[in-house]
Amino acid sequence: MTQKQSFDVLVIGSGASGGWACKRLAEAGLKVALLEAGRPQSFKNFTEHQPPFELKYRNLVPEVVRKTRPIQSEFDICTEYNYEWFCNDLEEPYSTPADKPFHWLGRLRMTGGRTNVWGRVSLRFSDFDLKSADFDGYGENWPLSYKDIEPYYDLVENYVGICGLAEGLAELPDSKFQPPMPLTCQELLLRNRAKEKLGWTVTPARSANLTRPLNGRGACHYCGPCERGCQTRSYFNSAFTTVADAIQTGNCTLISNAMVYRVLMDADRNRARGVLYIDRNTRQPHEIYARGIVLCAQAQESVRILLNSANRQHANGLANSSGVLGHYLTAHVRTGGGSGEFPTFDAKPTLGGPKRPLGFYVARFRNTKGGPRSKNFLRGYGFEGDTELSFNWSAPSFGETYKKALRDPRAQVNVQGFGEVLPRWDNYLEIDRKLVDHYGIPVLKIHMSDGPNEQAMIKDMAESAGELLQAAGAKNIRTFANPSAPRWAVHEAGIARMGNDPKKSVLTQFQQTHDVRNLFVMDASGFTSNPCQNPTLTIMALCVRSCDYLMDEMKRGNI
Amino acid sequence: MVQSLLASMGALAACPQIASSHPVFRHLSDAETLSKADAKAAATNWVPEFLDSHQNQTLVLLSERIVPGSSQAQVNRIIDLLLTVDTAENRRKFTDSLLAIDVESRKRFVRVFKALSADQQDEILTSLAAGKPSVDQDSGRRSIKKRLQQPALTLRDHFENVKAWIVGTYYSSEVGMRELGWTGDVYFVELPTCPHPEGHE
Predict the structure, then answer these.
(1) Would you state the pLDDT for residue A453?
(2) Least confident among A54-68, B4-18, B35-49, B67-81
């Protein structure tokens, strides 16, 4: 051990929740250490304006990325431009049963975590989601209500900047919106006909992209590839917003390349006293101490830390007296959807011109309150979609005829479902005792598969995508429904679930572990269920709420 | 040269018949290949390394007929260099396709493709382009049983194979990208909005 430092609070991870935690705590005057497993992020790493011919391999050589990121490169946002932001899959492996492949995507190793490359879709949950067990009898309700989170949604949105259009939907509450980005002609047609014929709501994407300047950040300049960074900070990336604010207070110390191994316990007092981390560069262990510990490392990573923190008093993992830790893994299913051809309305494709970062969203329409219930599955899904105005690359013929036909525009609207996965005990994580990563830290073994509910939901996604596109008058409609969750898991949640009963849950409604008062987990681990809405906005709102509770408890002397 | 030629390949991923699985993409798999391609394509005393002289001459003519401008973009040189490092299967497929076109030329006009008049070349290509592919391009799907079988390639398949190489190489050049609207501008004030006051009811 080469280092001993002490702070008020340690925040582990600098993504959506970690960024907010260090901002909220440091701005309140607490001394915070922010431990990030990756490197510092920098504007010089941003390549959103770089044309492909300036790249060594033109972004056309998947092997360049696959060589070290065979799993991360499954996600199309991990490219030659930015692959070094992602973890090296060979150095940081995990295992799965042979019959349950699981592709753990989006493992970032930069300040800002996943917010560097996230999809930016920002949607509120409602009581319909938080009390879903009351509605259909499955699983557990969350230990809090919409009214508990609502002021924190407001707070976060006013800082992050969410563009969108108020629709007044009970299941999808409106945010404090900046003006929406415009829908295309095809999408306006889809919106009008979906509402008229099906009663479904097609709305401009609710996205963490600025359409108006905010807090010194510029409005979007529509260059296109947000996942490669943004010189004008127009999309929300915690590295240049919350984390930067925290550091500016002088109260937050960013410790980069810190792979947290486990939480250190003061056994006599049942208190967490710090963490042990491995420096990625030197591979040397360090200890760091604080009054409070906040894990925001991403759901699986935070639970991995807790499981690796097992000791004599906590033999099954820290904060696991319930035995629930690591169980109820959920992740959105998203491999059902469809596409159809639309009129071009005289629009012309081009390799130049402005590009819209996101398209549209179709609010959940299955199993809604007061609506008909599906006989085949519980819960629901929304669609993310966009319009693809493209050249006719597959035009027949050749010569000048081909060159002319190539310019014959094609307008296609695509929709892809994002559906809720039911929390199930047998989708779980454990420590693989036979495998350690490059830093000597035991890795996870992930057990996850689609259940009948997910399979039925994916099938329904394809059917309803066809229904939607048909209602809009699309031609050549194609739908798809593929097995999904293990291969394309994103938005993982639920593996340290919140609840009122310490025998059935890991965290309180303030994301405080039931077992250790000064230990919190503020990423999506605590989600009691995983509604179909994208989780990041709720992760951020809950984090701020829990930080306020943490500070109150510290003031009271309870932590 | 190759660096410019390959610039816009990403944009071509949207093309079903020039999908990323096409061998033209896989040639760009190492820097050495690209460096060699740059140097060799620019050389004034260039000779094909993989193709024989007849095949190269055929490719020059085919390229220009399929995508006018290909000769100036030296599409044949790039394709030849990429083929030198491709798999034996893809090399064989490419030369098989050239051969199939020659066989069809002989069948119709008793001469190989390069010896035909421009009108005759166009007639051959028109016929090939109108042929039936072995796989239904519209659905792109086949049963598992059929997928396990290697369908016999048709003349249309050979035409599409050669065409995909040529189109992919040409439209990844800077001149090809500019032809399709690329300017290098990256800052835009606003997105286009619907220009139809009557709306879309």
Answers:
(1) 96
(2) B4-18
Higher pLDDT, residue B89 or A213: A213
Tell me which residue range forms the domain holding A357.
162-208+334-420+449-488
For B112: left if phi > 0, alpha if psi spans -120 to 50, otherwise beta; the answer is beta
Report the DSSP beta bridge partners of residue A533.
Answer: none
Q: What is the pLDDT of residues B44-60, one digit of tens each?
A: 789 999 999 999 999 99
The answer to whether residue A186 is domain-embedded is yes
Q: Which pLDDT score is estimated for B182? A: 87
A60 closest CB neighbour out of B10, B126, B191: B10
Interface test with B, best of A49, A60, A210, A412 (most B CBs within 10 A): A60
Answer yes or no: do B191 and A356 touch at CB < 8 A. yes
Chain A touched by B183 (CB under 8 Å)? yes
A394 closest CB neighbour out of B3, B15, B67: B15
Interface contacts (A, B; CB < 8 Å): 134
Instruction: Work out the minimum CA distance from B153 to partner chain A, whole angstroms.
Output: 18
* pLDDT at position A457: 96
Partner-chain residue, chosen from B6, B30, B185, that has the shortest CB–CB distance to A58: B6
Own/partner contacts of A97-102, CB < 8 Å, gap of 24 or more, are A97/A445, A97/A447, A100/A446, A100/A447, A100/A448, A100/A449, A100/A486, A101/A486, A101/A487, A102/A446, A102/A448, A102/A486, A102/A487, A102/A489
For residue A397, list chain B residues with Cβ-Cβ distance below 8 A: 126, 129
CA B94 to chain A, closest CA, distance in angstroms equals: 18
Does the global pTM surpass 0.80?
Answer: yes
Closest CA to A324 of A92, A521, A488: A521
CB contacts of B15 in chain A (<8 Å) are 391, 393-394
The domain of B101 spans 2-179
How many domains is chain A partitioned into structurally?
A: 1
Q: Which residues of B touch A341 (CB under 8 A)?
A: none
Mean pLDDT, to the nearest integer, of A394-415? 94
Structure tokens that stand for B37 in this block: 């391609």
Please tell me the least confidently modeled range out of A90-104, B1-15, B16-30, B87-101.
B1-15
The reply to whether B186 falls in a domain is no
Minimal CA separation from B61 to chain A, in Å: 11
User: Is A323 a member of any domain?
Assistant: no
Selecting from B15, B122, B188 the residue whose C-beta is nearest the C-beta of A354 gives B188
What ipTM was predicted for this assembly? Answer: 0.90
What gap in Å lies between CA A275 and CA A263, rounded to an integer? 4
Asked whether residue A275 is assigned to any structural domain, the reply reads no
Comparing CA positions, the residue from A104, A98, A126 lying closest to residue A329 is A104
Residue of A nearest to B28 (CA): A61
**A12-62: pLDDT as tens digits:** 999 999 999 999 999 999 999 999 999 999 999 999 998 776 765 556 556
Q: Determine whether the interchain pair A53/B7 forms a contact, defined as Cβ–Cβ distance below 8 Å.
A: yes
Burial readout A18-40 (b: 16 or more C-beta within 10 A, e: otherwise): bbbbbbbbbbbebbbbbbbbbbe
Please give the tally of structural domains in chain B. Answer: 1
* In a domain? residue A467: yes
User: What pLDDT digit, counting tens, does each position of B108-128 carry?
Assistant: 999 999 999 999 999 999 999
In this prediction, residue A371 carries a pLDDT of: 80
